Recover the amino acids of this structure.
């Protein structure tokens, strides 16, 4: 996979555009300087989680004796369910119950930005991509792009309007479903190939 | 078979795949809680979204999907699954939604009407394939434009149907279109499965 593919997929799964309205609701009561600080801090947490899984992923595969197809299937399913929640909002979902006040680690850094599906994706990519440099570069690129989106949240909201934000959210939800299904199908294919080879 | 189609042929193909006649009752059932002028506004907006999406796919579809590593197959599955879930919601409306019918959580925006109902995986892949096969960009764009204008014209006149069949008729229509949608989406899913099996 190319550098840009990795970066783009990671950026979409972080879904900073889809998380904009949730983020804005959380930081509503904070001053602009405080907001910037919160974005830097939360994105810092998210980056730490991502880097952790980038390095530890391989070890997890071995220690828990997990095969690659199962990570593909599992992350595909989780991503699928997350995306379904975006497309069909239910009154019991996390997005409908965003806690008021300043986020600290939960829920902005984890799981909204660095959720289980993103971390599993990083595990998968880190395994198949040989060059550590490419992987780190892609993570940093996707991370910076998400950070820029969050830092300009207010401006984007004014530009797109509330309805425009909803449209963007739905469109990224659709894209996430596509990614999830692709991942799931690859998992099935890989599993079948593994079993028929044995 | 001729490799290049005339503008009219192409536009007609797109129109058939988008299937505005079959989709109008479905859209109407989804928008039953809005009054006709609102319905017309929403349908017009969604139609324009669908048109924009088709144009984007004409130019960037192939590059975008391959950049993300997504197969056409996943697109088919995606449309099938989303429409299937939608159909389940129509056939088995949840108690809560039924009680406070007046206003749903959110008015439909982009999903599900613009995509995958109007401009779904079928239309998107056809647009992508014909755009790749035919170097005449202007013709393809014109065909998409014609088909979308026709689609918008048909679907925006759908709210008039509501006056004809009344409130109880609309409730029945919702359930019946749910059934049709289940069939359509299962067909789409099966399509995806058979493509997937062939690829294995």
């Amino acid at each position: 996979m190319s550098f840009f593919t990795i970066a783009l997929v990671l950026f979409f799964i972080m879904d900073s555009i889809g998380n904009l309205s949730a983020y804005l609701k959380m930081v509503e009561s904070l001053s602009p300087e405080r907001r910037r600080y919160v974005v830097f801090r939360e994105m810092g947490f998210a980056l730490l989680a991502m880097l952790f899984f980038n390095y530890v992923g391989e070890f997890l595969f071995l220690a828990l004796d997990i095969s690659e197809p199962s990570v593909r299937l599992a992350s595909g399913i989780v991503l699928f369910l997350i995306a379904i929640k975006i497309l069909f909002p239910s009154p019991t979902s996390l997005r409908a119950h965003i806690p008021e006040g300043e986020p600290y680690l939960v829920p902005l850094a984890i799981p909204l930005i660095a959720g289980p599906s993103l971390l599993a994706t990083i595990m998968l990519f880190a395994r198949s991509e040989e060059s550590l440099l490419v992987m780190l570069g892609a993570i940093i690129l996707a991370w910076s792009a998400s950070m820029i989106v969050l830092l300009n949240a207010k401006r984007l909201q004014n530009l797109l309007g509330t309805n425009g934000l909803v449209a963007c959210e739905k469109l990224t939800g659709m894209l996430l479903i596509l990614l999830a299904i692709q991942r799931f199908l690859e998992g099935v294919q890989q599993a079948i190939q593994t079993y028929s080879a044995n | 078979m001729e490799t290049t189609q005339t503008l009219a042929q192409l536009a007609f193909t797109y129109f058939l795949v988008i299937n505005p006649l079959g989709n109008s009752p479905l859209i109407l059932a989804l928008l039953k809680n809005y009054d006709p002028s609102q319905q017309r506004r929403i349908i017009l907006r969604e139609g324009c979204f669908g048109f924009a999406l088709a144009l984007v796919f004409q130019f960037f579809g192939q590059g975008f999907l391959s950049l993300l590593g997504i197969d056409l197959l996943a697109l088919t599955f995606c449309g099938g699954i989303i429409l299937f879930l939608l159909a389940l919601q129509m056939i088995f409306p949840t108690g809560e939604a039924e009680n406070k019918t007046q206003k749903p959580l959110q008015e439909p925006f982009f999903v599900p009407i613009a995509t995958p109902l109007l401009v779904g995986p079928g239309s998107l892949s056809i647009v992508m394939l014909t755009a790749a096969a035919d170097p005449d960009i202007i013709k393809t764009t014109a065909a998409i434009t014609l088909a979308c204008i026709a689609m918008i014209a048909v679907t925006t006149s759908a709210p008039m149907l509501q006056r004809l069949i009344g409130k109880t008729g609309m409730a029945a229509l919702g359930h019946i279109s749910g059934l049709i949608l289940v069939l359509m989406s299962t067909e789409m899913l099966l399509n995806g499965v058979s493509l997937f099996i062939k690829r294995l």
